[in-house]
Here is the input.
Amino acid sequence: MSMPTNTHTFFYNDQIGNVITKDIETTNKYLQQIIDKGTGTTKTLDATGKEIFDKVEEQRRLIVTEFNGDGPTGRRGNGKQIGRYLEEINKILNSNIQQDPRYNSADVEILNKYQAEIDVALNSALKPHTITHSTVSKARTEKNRLTAMNDSIQVDLQVGSISEEKIKQVEKLLADGYNTIQSNRQFVEFDSTTDDEEVYTKENGVTRTKRMSSVIEVFFVDFMQGKYPSSFWYYVILSILVDIAAFIFFDIAFKEESDFI
Here is the structure.
């Protein structure tokens, strides 16, 4: 009965450093994607945001074409057709852009005003569908903290082992990173050759580092499902040998006690 627990203990002590290092590396990779896409010159949008943007830009194009006299009516200026395009934009953006009362006027200031009002309404509607400045700042802070922690851990691994206190600190930092990635999963391109997408997009998901501390998850789930290489049997055999040795020593001690009595 003690074999799974002992196996996990040997495996955990031997592999936790590698797991933490890889966990930090992978988490930082996806945090960096969020940072890059949130600070690029082109606004990054999710699927819904792209659909909204494309629909509005099409109506904007039609407004400009109509205003310049190249639309379906062939008339220049602020006519009824412009009003119809504005109504369509209002439906898409849930906005309230009003048509300028100067009907049929070709004053370019009217067109410029429409452009500005569309920009404001569109930017407002796209906020839930893009990476915000606060998200970028949060992702950058989390990545920097994980990087600093990883540097400290590598020093610990070179001179000995990682303390449980530090492992707990890493688990907290990783959990923060996982949550940021999960909340912005639509902007992350996960490695298709791994189970990263499944791991990072679960609601209230558990980090790989945290998962390593569970005997049930490591032995009865991952090992039993063949997720570990054959080298895992080394820890199983070592655990069995330790149990056998314990039984032998107990038997010897019990016999010596019986002989003494």
